[in-house]
Amino acid sequence: MARDERFARRPERLERLDLPREPRRTLPRPHYDPEAFGVLSERIARFMGTARFLVYMTVFLAIWIGWNTMAPDNLRFDPYTFTFLTLLLSVQASFAAPLILLAQNRQDDRDRVQYEQDRARSDRAIADTEYLAREIAAIRMAIGEVATRDFVRSELQRLLEEIEEHDADHGELDSADRDR
Predict the structure, then answer these.
(1) Consecutive H or E run containing 80
(2) Do the beta carbons of residue 63 and residue 76 sit within 8 Å?
(3) Which of 32, 76, 78, 173 is most buried, most CB within 10 Å of its CB?
(4) What is the pTM of this model?
(5) 45 class by beta-carbon count within 10 Å (0-12 exposed, 13-18 middle, 19+ buried)
């Protein structure tokens, strides 16, 4: 084979990186409602975390082991090493772990949404508090320019004293004019 033949241009059928792949024909996938499956997994995980589940599992294991150790030989279905029981517990654990993880992921999603809502609520509360602080400061500044009751009283008292002084001065002048 000549060197040029090895490095010859390949046909355009090669996959291009700038184009998406054509869909492959696959077997039809089963359809399920992810929300319903998530709710079911949460219920199972919640049940597996209860004392009731532990009691049921303990009773089941005690009956299984008791039957297979104390029953007549012809009625025992799982001999001493309890291989079938081990297999059942392994299958139960292999199903329980993903269900518990799915339930935890759903709880994390709910917690994340709650956190975002709490943060938005907190941001609004901070903005409202800052607005109220600015408004209170503006009111304080405006009150500084408003005459208070004590200020008005002192000004009226001062004016009354000036009027009395003025009347007293004019009263003396009027009497002096009359005497002349």
Answers:
(1) none
(2) no
(3) 78
(4) 0.54
(5) buried
Q: What contacts 84, CB < 8 A, 6 or more positions away?
A: 77, 78
| Sequence-distant contacts of 13-18: CB under 8 A, at least 24 apart | none
- For residue 122 the two structure tokens come to 């907190």
The alpha carbon dihedral of 106, 108, 112, 115 has a sign of: positive
**70 vs 65: CA distance, rounded Å:** 8
CA 107 – CA 47 distance, rounded (Å): 15
The vertex-49 CA angle with 94 and 96, nearest 5°, equals 10
Q: pLDDT-based confidence at 97, cuts 50/70/90? A: very high
Q: How far, in Å, CA of 61 to CA of 178, rounded?
A: 130
Structure tokens at 159: 């004016």
